[in-house]
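Supplementary Methods. Inverse-folding protocol.

Structures were first reduced to a discrete structure-token string of length 460. This string, shown here, constituted the complete conditioning input.
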């Protein structure tokens, strides 16, 4: 593969990246369904929907037409000074699918904004209800909630404070209930819940505004699926101390066989759920914070919540989101995620039996991951100086796969490859994906063995 040469002026977004990361990025010139086509003519299967985002794949005519029609009728109006029908239609659609407890929908341009908007809303409600002392937030390590300065403070990333600590407010962190390498999923959940309650007691329950968590992990934990006792326990603890529970479902919504991953445990529903990623499926910037009508009405009776960004509830983005949801519902893509996801997971487990790189296969529906290990017997992690995911990604391009694996914490909690193809994938394409992935992992394993041997470490 030839290295990309940067122009003297301009350039694509990766001119800001480190050269080691950016130099071999493919140049994508077109897309067809679940495939992307690069300037060398390669058809690359989009294994992770970009970053869990392109839920309908490329070129969905229904969504594109809805955007065009909306743009011709009303291109833009500001949500702080006006209202419009596309906003109302999308909010009603989301709230109906989300069900009781999520009757109100605050729309923003992306997941980071929606997480911040959720916390801003909860803070405004706390102040208006005489609980102004509640200003502390608890989240998990590892975890991921965005890339704005404030959401960077929520993320479970041990390296981030070295760069951002003087510019953001950091949440308190508890250990995430990581199931792989734990004595049992139940014990992992129990340990995290104990840490949550101890942290609340240390801070002072009256000081804590919210606990923010991913009900099923994304890239930060390699799609960690906690034991069900974790969500129910977190709900119980938050109720005990009057703390709001926030589920960041930017990644997990639509993918796990339910509209929300939260719906797998209806006795542990959060106070606020955040949607992003697949909500507009890459056709427009869109995210949402889902909150109960009762909280909104309590606040609107006093100060109200008039916090907005310029593109909140953009008419064209709303039209895109509504059309995406129509596609998801009418094509039964949530059930497809459960059905095809089970087939995909079974295929990954077969590959794992013969691959020296795979220590674990996990996830739910079409939200899956494989844990990469340097030794299957001991489940040893790769050393900090070796990023196995980047090696696998590079080999994936040679086998027609566009993969996604972004290392965090220098592998302290593990390394993984994320498998979350568009919701429209079928069994035939799933089989193609598995065949290409098996070849990719075999060639990547050969390179990693050579690398280990040349460095004087034990081979895989």
């Amino acid at each position: 593969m030839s290295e990309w040469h940067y122009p003297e002026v301009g350039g694509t977004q990766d001119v800001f990246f480190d050269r080691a990361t950016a130099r071999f990025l493919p140049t994508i010139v077109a897309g067809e369904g679940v495939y992307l086509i690069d300037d060398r003519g390669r058809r690359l299967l989009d294994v992770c929907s970009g970053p869990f985002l392109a839920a309908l794949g490329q070129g969905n005519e229904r969504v594109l037409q809805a955007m065009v029609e909306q743009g011709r009728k009303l291109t833009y109006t500001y949500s702080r000074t006006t209202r419009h029908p596309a906003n109302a239609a999308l909010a009603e659609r989301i709230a109906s699918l989300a069900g009781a407890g999520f009757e109100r929908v605050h729309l923003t341009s992306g997941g980071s904004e929606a997480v911040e908007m959720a916390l801003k809303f909860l803070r405004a409600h706390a102040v208006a209800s005489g609980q102004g002392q509640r200003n502390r937030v608890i989240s998990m390590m590892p975890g991921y909630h965005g890339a704005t300065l404030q959401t960077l403070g929520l993320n479970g990333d041990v390296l981030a404070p070295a760069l951002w600590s003087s510019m953001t407010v950091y949440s308190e962190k508890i250990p995430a209930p990581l199931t792989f390498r734990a004595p049992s999923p139940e014990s992992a959940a129990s340990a995290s819940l104990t840490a949550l309650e101890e942290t609340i007691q240390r801070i002072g329950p009256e000081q804590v505004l919210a606990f923010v968590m991913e009900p099923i992990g994304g890239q930060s934990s390699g799609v960690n699926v906690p034991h069900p006792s974790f969500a129910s326990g977190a709900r119980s603890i938050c109720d005990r101390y009057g703390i709001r529970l926030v589920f960041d479902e930017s990644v997990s919504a639509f993918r796990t066989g339910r509209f929300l991953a939260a719906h797998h445990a209806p006795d542990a529903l959060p106070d606020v759920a955040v949607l992003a990623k697949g909500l507009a499926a890459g056709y427009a910037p869109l995210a949402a914070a889902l909150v109960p009508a009762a909280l909104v009405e309590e606040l609107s009776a006093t100060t109200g919540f008039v916090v907005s960004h310029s593109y909140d509830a953009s008419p064209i983005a709303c039209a895109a989101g509504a059309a995406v949801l129509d596609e998801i519902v009418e094509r039964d893509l949530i059930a497809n995620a459960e059905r095809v996801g089970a087939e995909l997971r079974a295929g990954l487990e077969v590959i794992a039996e013969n691959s020296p790189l795979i220590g674990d296969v996990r996830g739910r529906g079409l939200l899956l991951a494989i844990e990469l290990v340097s030794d299957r017997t001991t489940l040893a992690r790769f050393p900090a100086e070796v990023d196995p995911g980047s090696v696998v990604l590079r080999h994936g391009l040679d086998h027609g796969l566009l993969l996604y694996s972004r290392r965090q914490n220098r592998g302290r909690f593990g390394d993984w490859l994320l498998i979350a193809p568009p919701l429209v994938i079928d069994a035939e394409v799933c089989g193609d994906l598995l065949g290409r992935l098996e070849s990719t992992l075999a060639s990547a394993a050969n390179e990693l063995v050579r690398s280990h041997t040349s460095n004087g470490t034990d081979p895989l």
